[in-house]
């Protein structure tokens, strides 16, 4: 097939995937998750276990070693049908602790230790490198098999160039979809859906080739069995050690591979999906493996002796003249490679940004943890990490020469990630596992793996000199990379697996037995091991009242995004019986907030950032007792008492607040009465005085005109004041006539800005607007809404005390509501006054007699209530900020 | 909930009893799986010279299919009743 057509079809396929991802993302944004969160999608997304290694490499593996390839799929099958043991617990922990990656899980389990996060991240990146190289190699190979020079002399580029293009394209796709936003919990619906589609494509492609081989090239299953018996691999050699070792390694890898952890735990939307996946995922593996041996046998039979068995899936249909089938197989292989690379690089990038970039940044500029734009930094570091990870994969591909069998490369990665297994499994089942033990075990395992398997994979003399392989380093024979401690008869892979796992576990257990865990570590350990034990109270550690809620809000907005942070804080405040956006910083609230932040930046970083604001987390004796099993039941009882007391406190707090408000209102009312009489009296006095002068007569005409104007102005002022009062009472009674119609929000804001410019016209304001977002048509009473806008803008003009005042008007549409935020850059409104500003007659400063009787915001609130919307004060925006929310379509109320 | 301190009942009602045994079955399944998959090691195909790829392959695929079928049955019966064990204060491994 001509090379350019091949490239075109690949591009078309990628664009199709893009469309799928985009559509799913849009659906998810609108909150219509529906089938996006079905067990089917979950199971299909798990199939990224089957990479190009399965698609191409399994046939090559079968052609070389018979049935041994099955271990790679039987191992995960055992883990999945045994989901009740490990997977169920992992998923529950992942959801409860909002784990973002396997590094986060391990670091969080061992006291939110960042050291462990770094170790896991480094191992994962290094172990993923050969795996990504494998994908690049298989795609490159398939290109070179498939592509033929065209007639006009356009020949395919060399394999190196293809690999570069593939790596670059994948990086681009991943960055575009994997790092679009920083989710509250690292879930990517678009990517997961695209991967589910790719899973279907690769399954159909492989089965299609298999059906073609068994029923069209051979005469059905019976004939196929006869051909297997007649083939070169009719007698396979089962090596017991390798058979058991590979079962173990594959079973470990399916839990420990960063990408598997990502789709299995992090992207899991519902624990019940795991129950379905426990049989459906093995079924998928079963279907993928069913035709591997027939394809391998037929390839060995029909294709010339020197043909690369790794490419049989592609070359067999090609040799039989089945161009369409070969194209399908090619797309299947392409799917396998791309889906793996995309998810793996997202998972690794999350780990790198959360466990390496963020902590370094926090260490370097602690002050900016609160104010700086963390989101942009995190996203940028993830984008760069994706590029780096793919770059490393490409470098490995170049260094290893791209000639090794696919299966051999894949197994190197499997043994590498299996080093997480002891820390993870002991961590979730044994409370005695400690941070130092985990760090020791993983480091030892990693070093042994690198020395015995990873570095030798580059070939003799590439990294390790050939002499070391023969005589050992410095002539120490028992340290030879392929024969540690003189064990020279073992298969190299098994040798590396055995020694790395043995030394890893030994170091881990020794370290755990000899060290003593810190308080946070012990609490996390208890929370992880007893995750199903619902009676244990959630561990606490933050002291009451050390952090200002407004500071916490500002920090959370930087990480979670303005909208999500405000929603979270509002819900928390409501839970405490408070209105507004600022809950009390109780230990429970702080713990929930920390867990929420951990969903974005990882447990260790979230903990460190909270400590910046709230001081060090302390663990009291009571907290430790609460998680100790001996006293759990006594504690449970007292916890119930405590929660009752908590409720009483909450009610008391609500009452106290109500009382405070009433008192203040009463004082205000008195103040208003005297003020309103004053306000009425002043114009009355001047009207009376000037009209007396006028009645005396005998005045020059210009003086008469002047006095007349003064009387007229004062009368107007009186009318306005009375109008306001009337307006307010009409609005409060709900008898107001609304004049509904469609109007453009942008025009309304234009009108409001024009009218409000008469207030303090000498002050020049810089207005920031977002015109494209404003272009919304709203069905509402435009005049009333504009009245609210004018009031807010005039207030900003009157009270904003910045030297060069600015006003930002931002519009957002969410669900059926439109919110308009007015944020200025002044000093804002003090916290204790925020509750009062919407009350009638409230004026914050008596000095600022800017006219008006303090009715503006009260009228605004009533107008908004009549328009079915709200107006609220937004704390923590760096100035006075008001949010107006209106329904997109206001329906006329009956009656 | 009863007043603390609360001791778990010695004998369970039938629904809970069946529920526990289904969980035991779920725990047992991978053990059976490992045993059946390691079984080919016993007849050590490496020393033989007869053609054993096809029969071994069929054996492994049949075992595989049976395991999947059993896993499906067990997970379905567990899934429907996952959270409503009236006698369970919490699930703490093999005990009770």
TrEMBL record, chain A:
It holds the Pfam family HisKA. GO terms for cellular component: membrane. It is a multi-pass membrane protein. The chain crosses the membrane at residues 6-24, 40-63, 69-87, 115-134, 162-179, 191-218, 243-261, 281-300, 312-334, 377-397, 404-430, 436-455, 462-481, 493-516. It is found in: Membrane. Residues 627-675 form a coiled coil. GO terms for molecular function: phosphorelay sensor kinase activity; transmembrane transporter activity. InterPro entries: HATPase_C_sf, HATPase_dom, His_kinase_dom, HisK_dim/P_dom, HisK_dim/P_sf, Na/Glc_symporter_sf, Na/solute_symporter, Sensor_HK_Regulatory. It catalyses: ATP + protein L-histidine = ADP + protein N-phospho-L-histidine. Its EC number is 2.7.13.3. Keywords: Coiled coil, Kinase, Membrane, Phosphoprotein, Transferase, Transmembrane, Transmembrane helix, Two-component regulatory system. Signal peptide: none annotated. Residues 675-890 form the Histidine kinase domain. The keyword Transferase applies. The keyword Mitochondrion does not apply. PANTHER family: SENSOR HISTIDINE KINASE RCSC, TWO-COMPONENT HISTIDINE KINASE. Belongs to the sodium:solute symporter (SSF) (TC 2.A.21) family. This is histidine kinase. It comes from Pseudotabrizicola alkalilacus.
TrEMBL record, chain B:
Keywords: Membrane, Transmembrane, Transmembrane helix. This is Uncharacterized protein. The chain crosses the membrane at residues 28-45, 57-74. It comes from Pseudotabrizicola alkalilacus.
